[in-house]
Structures are given as structure tokens and as C-alpha cells.
Amino acid sequence: MSENTDPNPFADAAPGDGTHAPAPDEQAAHAETSAQPEGASNPRIAELEAEVSAMRDKWMRAEAEMQNVRTRAKREVEDARQYAVQKFAKDVVEAAENLKRAVASLPQPTEGEDSILTSMREGIESTERSFIGILERNGIKAEDAKGKPFDANLHQAMAEQHSDEHPQGRVMEAWTPAWTLHGRLLRPAMVVVSKGPAQAG
């Protein structure tokens, strides 16, 4: 029996790990990809980064504007809450001034005075203190201007007089206090302002 002399069918196969060689089309595509420069896609990346930066800037501006709107709205609501009763408060302080005048009109305490007069005085004074306390708890305050520098924002000058005791521009006398509501002027103090010492001659 003769030996098989047929040529090895795998004799022409390429040596290696058994993988087939790339087809010509794949080799061409790989060569074309490898030939592209590394920075070929950079313009598109730069364009996208610019868009992202612009969108971030717009978002930050919109957020800042929304914060400003919220702050303004909160301030307006607070102002409306605090000053909605401003007209009513002006009438209330007028009542407080009348009550103070009533106290001032009472005669000074004297020894042996009638008990009815004493009780009346104490009752009116107690009512005034209580009323002023209620006003202060609701943001309405009275400020005595006597002895303070004249302030056009708080005081209304009803007269000017020479004075050797008070320097020029100082409030000599306050007929009424300055009333404020949460720091905002309700009614200015009616005052007499010093013109300083009278000039000799």
C-alpha cells in the first residue's frame, strides 16, 4: 500500500495563531482611520463646550433674576403687611396725644386732695401707659424731640427763638413727639428750634 503523496491542503495558510488575515477593504478603512490627525474632532468639541458654557451662563443669569424677583416680592409683601394700617395708625397716635393732654391737664397731686381726683388721675395715667405699651408692641413708637438736634425727617419747626441755653439748631421745646411705624414716619414732632444766643445790640 503506497503512502499518501497529496500536498498538504493547509500548506499555503499564513502562519500565526489561526486568525485570518484582514480583508483588503478592512485594511483600507483601518489605514484611512489611522491617517486622520488626533485633533480632527477638536472643532466640534470646542463648539459643544461653547454651547454648554453659554447655556450655563444663561442659567446663572436666570437664577439670579429669579432670586431678585423673590427678594422683591418678599419685601413688597412685608411692606404691605407692616404699612397697610398706616392710615389707621395715624388716627391712633392722635388719640394717644389727646390722652397725654388729658393727663397733663390734671392738677398736680396735693396733700389731702379728694380721693376721687386721686383715683381719676391714677386711672388716666395707667390707661395712657397701657395704651402706649400696646402701640409699641405693634411697631408704633413716640420719640421726644426736646433737646435733640433738629432733624427735618422727624421734626416740623413751628417757631424759632433765641436761646442762651440751647445752641443754634437744637430743639428747645417739643409740643408733640415724633411718631413712627416700624421706623417710618407717621407724624412729625411739632417743635420750637433755637436760633442761638441773641446778638448784643
TrEMBL record:
Where it sits in the cell: the answer is: Cytoplasm
Q: How does it assemble?
A: Homodimer.
Region: Disordered, residue numbers? 1-46
* Cellular component terms per the entry's GO annotation: cytoplasm
This protein's source sits in the domain of life called: Bacteria
Q: What is this protein called?
A: Protein GrpE
Q: Which InterPro entries match?
A: GrpE, GrpE_CC, GrpE_head
Provenance organism:
Komagataeibacter saccharivorans
Its keywords, alphabetically, are: Chaperone, Cytoplasm, Stress response
Q: Which GO terms describe its biological process?
A: protein folding
Q: What does this protein do?
A: Participates actively in the response to hyperosmotic and heat shock by preventing the aggregation of stress-denatured proteins, in association with DnaK and GrpE. It is the nucleotide exchange factor for DnaK and may function as a thermosensor. Unfolded proteins bind initially to DnaJ; upon interaction with the DnaJ-bound protein, DnaK hydrolyzes its bound ATP, resulting in the formation of a stable complex. GrpE releases ADP from DnaK; ATP binding to DnaK triggers the release of the substrate protein, thus completing the reaction cycle.
Q: Name one Pfam family in it.
A: GrpE
**PANTHER family (UniProt xref):** GRPE PROTEIN, GRPE PROTEIN HOMOLOG, MITOCHONDRIAL
Q: Which GO molecular function entries does the Swiss-Prot or TrEMBL record give?
A: adenyl-nucleotide exchange factor activity; protein homodimerization activity; protein-folding chaperone binding; unfolded protein binding
What HAMAP family does the entry give?
GrpE
Q: Which gene encodes it?
A: grpE
The family annotation for this protein states: Belongs to the GrpE family.
Mind telling me which Gene3D superfamilies this protein's record contains?
Answer: 3.90.20.20, Head domain of nucleotide exchange factor GrpE
